[in-house]
Amino acid sequence: MAGIDSSTQSCKVVVRAADTGALVRSGTAPHPPGTEIDPEHWWHALEQATVAAGGLADVAALAVGGQQHGLICLDEAGVVARDALLWNDTRSAQAATDLVDELRRRRACGARWADAVGVVPVAAVTVAKLRWVAEHEPQVRDRTAAVCLPHDWLTARLLGDTGPTHW
User: Fold this and answer.
1) In angstroms, rounded to a whole number, what is the distance separating the alpha carbons of residues 108 and 156?
2) What is the pTM of this model?
3) I need a surface site. Which of 58, 76, 100, 149 has the fewest CB within 10 A?
4) Dihedrals φ, ψ of 48, to 5°?
5) pLDDT tens digits, one per residue of 113-165
6) Intra-chain end-to-end CA distance of the chain, in Å
7) In this structure, are residues 72 and 149 in contact, taking their beta carbons and an 8 Å threshold?
8) DSSP codes of every residue in 67-86
């Protein structure tokens, strides 16, 4: 079995024995620094880490995890519409505040985001980044057919998914 961790700084591939959990082999490859990244960099890092780990040909099960709250906008064909905005990009702080205020005004009962959806938007949360894109990049907003997180995008690539209609 293998695990893939695509974090902010790097991609790690770990292969373990299914019966004992013992480490069989592993590999890692760096990601470029920044708060806005072309997801293809993550794919290339995954390929490099996989090679460094000795490949996955003998692996029967695979799990993919990684950084949360990155925003990847995809068009109808599944093509990335803009570089991904990572959790550490804070330009969406005002969008998060606006989302919280708007829900509060709409709900006569005073329901809050935590009550309604389980999380309160802050700059790091994907919905705030999506709001920021909608407000500041209308050409990307209009092109976006689906959004996903970094580990979802990698999983789809590993599975050969070709676009949002398969998600």
Assistant:
1) 41
2) 0.87
3) 58
4) -65, -45
5) 777 778 888 899 999 999 999 999 999 999 999 999 999 999 999 988 755 55
6) 24
7) yes
8) -SS-BEEE-TTS-B-SPEEP
